[in-house]
Amino acid sequence: MSENQSKVNPDLAMERAKCNFNITEVTHIIDGGENVTLQRKKFEDAALNDGASKDRIGEEHMSPKEKYENAIRKSCIYANIVKNDLANMTALESFGLNSPILRRTADAFFKEVSPFLLHLGMFVPTLMGQCTQEQQAYWLPRALDMQIIGTYAQTELGHGTFIRGLETTATYDPETEQFVMNSPTLTSYKWWAGGLAKTVNYCIVVAQLYTKGVCHGTHPFIVQIRDEETHMPLPGIKVGDIGPKLGFNTADNGFLGFENYRIPRENMMMKNAQVLKDGTYVKVARHGKATYGTMVFVRVILVNEAAFNLAKACTIAVRYSAIRRQCSPNPEGSELQVLDYTTQQHKLFICIATAHALQLNSIWLWKTFSDTLAAIKEGNVDTLPELHALSSCLKALSTADAASLIEQCRHACGGHGYMMSSGLPYLYAFVTATRTYEGDYTVLLLQTARFLVKAYEQVEAGKPLTPTVSYLSHAFTGKKLPWDSSPDGIIRSFQALAAGKLSSAVKSLRRRLESGLSHEQAWELSTIQLISAAEAHCRAVMSQTYKNEIVRLTENSSPNVKKVMQQLSTLYLYYWALERIGDLLLFTSISEDDIVVLRLRYEELLKEIRPNAVGLVDAFDLRDELLHSALGSYDGNVYERLMAEALKSPLNAEPVNQTFNTYLKPMMKGKL
Amino acid sequence: MSENQSKVNPDLAMERAKCNFNITEVTHIIDGGENVTLQRKKFEDAALNDGASKDRIGEEHMSPKEKYENAIRKSCIYANIVKNDLANMTALESFGLNSPILRRTADAFFKEVSPFLLHLGMFVPTLMGQCTQEQQAYWLPRALDMQIIGTYAQTELGHGTFIRGLETTATYDPETEQFVMNSPTLTSYKWWAGGLAKTVNYCIVVAQLYTKGVCHGTHPFIVQIRDEETHMPLPGIKVGDIGPKLGFNTADNGFLGFENYRIPRENMMMKNAQVLKDGTYVKVARHGKATYGTMVFVRVILVNEAAFNLAKACTIAVRYSAIRRQCSPNPEGSELQVLDYTTQQHKLFICIATAHALQLNSIWLWKTFSDTLAAIKEGNVDTLPELHALSSCLKALSTADAASLIEQCRHACGGHGYMMSSGLPYLYAFVTATRTYEGDYTVLLLQTARFLVKAYEQVEAGKPLTPTVSYLSHAFTGKKLPWDSSPDGIIRSFQALAAGKLSSAVKSLRRRLESGLSHEQAWELSTIQLISAAEAHCRAVMSQTYKNEIVRLTENSSPNVKKVMQQLSTLYLYYWALERIGDLLLFTSISEDDIVVLRLRYEELLKEIRPNAVGLVDAFDLRDELLHSALGSYDGNVYERLMAEALKSPLNAEPVNQTFNTYLKPMMKGKL
């Protein structure tokens, strides 16, 4: 760092001098403790210091096929790094195999994603969650050592959300003790699984299980699709690439079809159900909801990644905004740093606060999930519905918030944000995908809404509520909540708002039922309101968790760290209160004067955070390798880097492009 | 069409059978009259029927360099088509040289844009707007015949919005009667101009004019940058590609620097100012605001393109939603068309309505602009400030609305919307760029706000107001507007809301001035509110224009056309009223019960529009060639087309990718 510091852009150096809090302390809070920070930095040094993550030619200059091939090369390098270093990293286990530390470091290697993403992200967790002990003993060591590479294929060309509608069949043949896999239609082809097209040789396939002429619904099977020595697709397997996408072009998302393809009976994942040799179907006595495990695990990861990618976007946008200068308030003055504009602060500081909110919510969700897993082992499954409802809405809101705020960061960078060399388009392409996969935004909020309506009925019945909805127990008074602009007061108002919207939605639902509609029809017609209620509930939970965690985590912090972290969590509350004025007017006693005061305090808060803005994004501690951004690098040499990146364009390798002689000149001379 | 109709997806055929209005009538309304539709179809037939727009290998499989080269090939083909057919197309002139008909047909050739985009889009219009008659006589014929190709370079690496801050210099040398062009710093390099990197040989350059030691501010110059025969950059010219972008990768956006590069005195564009042979600077007596011409022209085009691209997105999403089936309300039923879900209708029908609103607003803005140009010729420049304020906010809101609604269409298509073969990512990449260039969203709304604050002061002074702000004259009563849920009532409430927000913003501004802040400081601190006021004003204008134009244009329509067009324009009003409940509660007398009724009526309207949804997108009359979408084609064979597109992926040309032997296998065997 020291030798580079002499070259740091003076505006950024000035910003760092202004920062009044201890940046390292904040880094520890965000990471989840000093020990995690140390582990992370150690692993980042091991993985990145030798420059193996860097490309000679940037992926943005390549065709999708070239991108894929480059990604395979780097995935193998990265897999070796992980294998070599994983043994030393015991602390990681607290956040699961697919640790954020590994994931964030991987981002230095891939501007998009690794083709191995679903191997550790879905294949291995599903082996752990759906296999018997014996099956795990057979499959897990080979998978963890990457002797085989797998993915997870559930979605089909014609079927996503509605799992019961899947068409792929696995029909048991007792004579050979095999399952016969088939894709009866075009729409039954598996579609989307990452790494499926060219990379993996194994695949977990979700299919309708038939035995003795009876369909027992969807079950997961382990299917070998390519020869381990030659990598050729096996007979009966049709596999290929689904083509270019908005993002993820380094991962070979694939399609997969079966034609009387046979797998051994033992390849059915038998933890929750089994087919005996004679074809008898046996449901293992186990709570049906135990299969939520992998699903919730993946959602926690997605909330965490939303936080991480938003942190990258605001690091880029805040640093650039400290360097970029535009207009001067008076004709003779020098141009202002754009970070000095109120509109720019309004766009960016909520991004920093949201990155904190999502990060702390993901850690909290992980802890809640771990507690639930422990409870399940004790046979207590009471908290599962709540956890499911919670992970659904947090995944939905986190990915949607992060995606739209990443775009806000890009807009805040003007034209340069549109360059791939800004790094910002990659972040949006990634996060906007996570808004859809593993549960679409709308579908997930409706799942949470279903839980909320049940909670509403429990309140009516005088029954007790689980923690995250306990605020509902005294919410349906019909009276407006007295407005209180303290942080706790605003959180209570968010709860009142969620309760009010829920109550309106239930009223609509019941009015429709009374008019003679079926429950399904009444529900369907009320979905706009139900989603709005679920979103309000989730905002209340996220706000409260963020605020509580900040109080808890800064208990022993130095005064200025405590102050700036509280400023941000208060900013988050003010921001969302101002975004929801209509709802506040309906469900609280807020007055026009209160709104004026709230807006003024919000604007004042922007000015208070301003001097610490660069320090706050520095505290995310994102190495330049992770940002892939000419605008966001630590040294702030924005214009030099933009030009350096431009000069790497293959179009600049020759003064005149070949198309001049073949097309342009004949056209201009009227001879084409 | 007839032979294809037998193959139309049955769900789509059923939708078309349900449509109760005359589709052709609606097409004429959208196009701006039957004659325009006929002209358009004639030109589309001429340009597209021979299949010249189609690629053997899709651009999405190429590297950016290959995309560029393919785009040059097709641009030359398209330029010839335009040259051959342009003579017959007199009707086009009513919408300017850069007619929407040419632009929309070009989209069949380019999934992104043509490298010639700025030749007809900026180079030629600027020649027309900034050159003297003599200069035009010299330059225009060569440019229109494409003997030379030009672009427009204003933005620099370090300077965008703030034109006074541009650094490129043009210093007059009376000895040689030349201007000497220089790029004194890295940040002074021209950056972004489309076609600049490799395509154009001429460029309009905006530079600081120095003569006799005095700087006279920025002026435009015509600069030859490449040899007409060899296409080599001329000595003193540094030109190249700026690298890959989120979109526009078929256009070679470039950088340009000068090192003592000399151009003849006559290459200064001299309509508004001249430098005489001896170096004397002469400001031609002319209204300074006349240079708004090209700027407003481009903004009208951008509003129109926002409409057109949003129309494409909703054509894709609505057709796909009629074919896609998901979940069944009862366990035994077949899966529903996703278009039957209220949430899906909520996402999509506002897109159809907004496409209409933007289209009709763009035509209206064009007419207003033409009237203004005519008035300027008569020496009347009174309406210029209003036109400027209007074009600013309409450009800002149109591009922002279209971009976010295109993403909404993509989300509504689930995972498949993320495929490039859906066509949707291209539309977003294009429109989100137009949100930034030619005036950033925030900057433009602040320009409108400045006009609104002046209007506020005129009301206080009892002075008359120009038409688009005339509603302000009786708005500042301090009383809440009585709620009236008729379309006209809602439009009045949007005006009340704009007036209320403007009033609040002015109060904040004045409070800050009274506290001792300078006008610039007070303005800066009030910008969040000022932008909100400008947005509300623009929404009121757009809503009123949309509603008025629908009434006017359907006066002689058949009853069902009239009905469905009114349903959509009412839907637009309800949608935005529900989005702005907070503001309505503050500035009108709307009650909780009114809101319940409004929501119910909105939901009923969705159900009324539902049977006509596919007919409405068919009425946009977008040929498959323009959509580039497996999801949106007229025949609705979605899954067949998705698979056909997938199979074109170069990764599918070989069963095993080369990286298996070089990387994957050694890694799996532990030998890498």
UniProtKB/TrEMBL annotation, chains A, B:
Limits of the Acyl-coenzyme A oxidase N-terminal domain: 22-149
The Acyl-CoA oxidase C-alpha1 domain, residue ranges: 292-453
Domain of life: Eukaryota
One GO CC annotation: peroxisome
InterPro entries in alphabetical order: ACOX_C_alpha1, Acyl-CoA_ox_N, Acyl-CoA_Oxase/DH_mid-dom_sf, Acyl-CoA_oxidase, Acyl-CoA_oxidase_C, AcylCo_DH-like_C, AcylCoA_DH/ox_N_sf, AcylCoA_DH/oxidase_NM_dom_sf
Localization: Peroxisome
Family in the record: Belongs to the acyl-CoA oxidase family.
Name this protein carries in UniProt: Acyl-coenzyme A oxidase
